[in-house]
Amino acid sequence: VTDPLRRVFIQWGASQFYPASAMACHVTASPNHQTKRETPLKYRFDVAMTGRMGFELHPKDLSADELAFAKHAVADYKRIRPIVQQGDLYRLESPYDGSRATLAYVSPDRRQSVVFVLGLDRPDDAPAGFELPWLSPDVRYACREINCGSRRHEVTLEDRRLKTALSGPYDSAVFVVDAL
Questions:
Q1: Residues 6+ apart with CB under 8 A from 177
Q2: Is residue 1 pLDDT above 70, yes or no?
Q3: How many CA atoms lie within 13 A of 179 on its CB side?
Q4: pTM score > 0.90 for this model?
Q5: 101, exposed or middle or buried, with CB in 10 Å at 0-12, 13-18, 19+?
Q6: Contact 72, 110 (CB under 8 A)
């Protein structure tokens, strides 16, 4: 079992050879029993959602607020699971090149996508925006954040570019982009 920060790198590499449906990505406890690193529950869920999400923590150990968040996160994952597990993967920002990893899964008809922005263990110094190359300039799109609890990230989507920023280490965001 590895902590979510290490999972970002492991999953980035494994996804070069294996589809998301073959990668078991588990939400683990914090602090992590191997690294002793503490990470937010949201971050742990967001990283696990990039593959076949599972659990390696005990729900009985979660607070009432954490359990409510977990239930909502599982429901969000169930809605995006077909896109993540059967969609095309786009690697947008490598974790090896900066302060975050950004990847997206796109439905076969290109009408829906899920974008994951995963902060690493350093302040976010990445440019605010990145291109979503599968978007058509002739189609209008709506973008909404999921799995965010009470905290939302500012986001804009224009000219096939999604603009957002993370607040610091272990911050993350998941956006669903739908054709209108």
A1: 112, 113, 114, 115, 132, 135, 141, 142, 143, 157, 162
A2: no
A3: 14
A4: yes
A5: buried
A6: no
